[in-house]
Design goal:
Elements: H1 6-21, H2 30-37, H3 67-79, H4 81-102, E1 107-113, E2 125-136, H5 141-208, H6 213-248, H7 274-280, H8 282-303, E3 308-320, E4 332-340, H9 348-414, H10 420-454
Antiparallel strand pairs: 1-2, 2-3, 3-4
Length: about 475
């Protein structure tokens, strides 16, 4: 066994001292990042649009007391293809963390060779060596890389979490659209029946001698138009069901079952404070983690321009049946060090620093984009909710007036004091108002879901996992309601 020389011991001590002496720079703090990314944004104390005070909390209002809808969400979380791709990206990021962390540890390898006098090199040598190499992270290059991988992994997990909530919101909105088209289809069926009665009335008036062919033709044309509209709404409902089934990972056969009526409007949602939004939304926090990862990669590139120091150690034994070895000491042990200093790389290392710096600037700009979009989504959802609520109250009264006007003009037509054109016009106004009311009701519910998602509120989902969601029972084909 070889004895370490004073020079070797001094080298080891120096290496340990260098390892302990280099501290890492921290990425920009949240306040610093926001000032850099959003220099022209003055965040108000309260939302500009009317909002419910209070802290944003997880909620299960989106289930709308419909157990079937909750089961559809579970199915989507288990089988949606986009979500499964997101889970795979998280697993990739997790693997990169392991790879980056491994660079900080020594690498160990074994070399063994054996053979007699008939071996390939005719030496008859037997060799067994264990070698270890450890690059000393003097300047923090490897640690910066490991931190960047950790930040990228954190951002991937946050993106996956936000994707789960976005998928839930998307599915609920698609479900609401399918229910909305169901109500519109029922409404049009009533209008078709009403128009059919007008055709009969026009024919009876013609037979009684108090009507004419024009009224009959107009009534039949109106009936045909409503039948055409009914067919359009039926197609829209079929497309809505197919879109819903794609989110579920099913074959788009328009067979999924939904409710027949839109649910009641849930109570208001606390909106929190604008200053809290950037810390609450997973997609914004994920963007902030990507800025941190880009910062660490920039520092890694800067450290790559400096010398690399590494230690090597070997332990093994060599023997031969045919060759007399000068040094017969076995086993043998060796310890050494390597220095690699990139003196000339034609600007490649500096270019790498410039690239990483530009990527960091891009990450900051992307953070600003996501942050501004978050503010805009909340303000837009709050404004839409107020406008839709007011419109719904107005149209309810309009529908009442239209229904009364249609009743009066129909009576007038029966007794001959009004023509059919007036009846058809009032019928069209009533249908248009009722259709808009159904649409607004569906939009209000969808906007409530949008608002909760925009605020960064949760949907009461089970804890996210990068592994595939636990599959639910395989879906069976169900007739559309």
């Amino acid at each position: 066994m070889r004895v370490l020389t004073p020079f070797t011991r001094t080298g080891i001590s120096l290496a340990v001292s260098l390892l302990a002496g280099c501290s890492l720079l921290a990425p920009p703090a949240n306040d610093e990042l926001r000032k850099d990314a959003l220099p022209n944004v003055s965040v108000p104390q309260q939302w500009k649009q009317p909002a419910e005070p209070g802290a944003v909390m997880d909620s299960e209002f989106w289930k709308f007391n419909d157990p079937a809808l909750a089961e559809l969400v579970k199915e989507a979380l288990a089988y949606n293809a986009d979500l499964r791709a997101g889970a795979a990206r998280v697993e990739q990021a997790r693997g990169y963390v392991t790879v980056a962390g491994a660079d900080l540890m020594p690498s160990v390898a074994v070399l063994a060779k054996g053979g007699g006098k008939w071996s390939g090199d005719y030496s008859g040598m037997q060799t067994a060596l264990i070698g270890a190499t450890w690059e000393l992270d003097v300047w923090g290059r490897q640690r910066y890389g490991a931190r960047a991988a950790t930040d990228s992994y954190a951002s991937a997990e946050l993106d996956y979490e936000y994707a789960r909530h976005s998928l839930t919101a998307w599915l609920v909105r698609s479900w609401l659209l399918a229910v909305q088209t169901t109500e519109q289809e029922d409404l049009l069926r009533e209008m078709v029946q009403s128009s059919d009665k007008l055709v009969e009335m026009a024919q009876l008036r013609l037979k009684a001698g108090i009507g004419d062919e024009t009224d009959v033709a107009q009534a039949r044309a109106s009936l045909g138009e409503y039948r055409d509209l009914l067919r359009q709404v039926q197609l829209a409902r079929t497309n809505a069901l197919r879109a819903l089934e794609v989110l579920l990972g099913r074959y788009p056969g328009a067979e999924v079952r939904t409710a027949s009526r839109l649910p009641a409007m849930p109570g208001p949602i606390p909106a929190g404070l604008p200053s809290e939004l950037l810390e609450r939304r997973p997609d914004v926090v994920a963007a902030e983690r990507r800025v941190a990862a880009a910062f660490n990669l920039t520092q890694e590139a800067k450290a790559a321009r400096l010398p690399k120091l590494s230690l090597t150690a070997t332990f093994g034994a060599v023997s031969s049946d045919l060759i007399v070895l000068q040094d017969k000491d076995n086993p043998t042990f060796g310890l050494g060090g390597n220095l690699l200093w990139p003196l000339f790389t034609a600007g490649a290392l500096q270019a790498q620093v410039d690239i990483r710096t530009a990527e960091q600037q891009e990450a900051v700009a992307n953070y600003a984009t996501i942050g501004l979009r978050a503010f805009d989504e909340v303000e837009g959802a709050l404004a839409s909710e107020t406008a839709l609520r007011e419109r719904q109250e107005i149209l309810k009264q309009v529908a009442t007036d239209n229904r009364r006007a249609l009743e009066l003009v129909t009576v007038q037509y029966k007794i001959g004091s009004s023509d059919l054109r007036s009846v058809l016009q009032e019928q069209l106004r009533l249908y248009s108002t009722l259709t808009t009311l159904v649409q607004i009701q569906g939009e209000r519910l969808a906007q409530r879901v949008n608002l909760h998602l925009a605020l960064g509120g949760g949907f009461g989902l089970p804890a996210a996992s990068a592994a595939a969601e636990q599959p639910v029972s395989p879906p069976t084909a169900k007739p559309a309601s």
